[in-house]
Amino acid sequence: MPKLTKAKLNRYQKVLIQILRELGAKVEHIEESVLRAEGGASPDEAQEFGSENYSAELQINIIQNEEEILREVHAALDRIQQKSYGVCEACDELIPERRLEVLPYARYCVGCQRKVEENGEID
Ligand SMILES: [Zn+2]
């Protein structure tokens, strides 16, 4: 089973949390667990993380439905916890990182995503 490195998982976790922030979701408890997982960031570092200049506008525009995005972002965070993040749920191949860069909560690689959109499901 392919998987992303811990460093990459941490990075995408921050990106996903940033998306939650921009959607106005309550993310305090998630941030706490992230900071704990990183081995106790100083308050300065936490501050810097909060003001990280990452824009999630692109991702948010891909799916207009805010609730759907929230659901997908939370599902992606769950996958990070389970170390299955970044792996296509249909074919078990790594999702290309350039895809994760624009759609960090992607469940599928491009090929499987297309099948999902055409058929409504993966058989
Ligand atoms: Zn796939």
Apparent shape: globular
Estimate what percentage of residues fall within beta strands.
under 5%
Report the sheet with the most strands, covering strand number, pairing sense and barrel closure.
none
CATH architectural name:
Up-down Bundle
Which regions contain 5 or more consecutive residues with pLDDT less than 50? Answer: 45-55, 58-63
What is the number of independent domains? 1
**What name does the CATH topology carry?**
Four Helix Bundle (Hemerythrin (Met), subunit A)
Order of helices and strands: HHHHHHH
CATH-defined superfamily: DksA, coiled-coil domain
Estimate percent helicity. 55-70%
By CATH reckoning, the class would read Mainly Alpha
Decide which structural class fits the backbone: mainly alpha
Treating each run of at least 4 consecutive H or I residues as one helix, how many helices?
Answer: 7
What is the β-strand count? 0
Straight-line N-to-C gap: 20 Å
Please tell me the overall pLDDT. Answer: 79
**Rg, please?**
15 Å
Q: Which cofactor or ligand species appear?
A: zinc ion
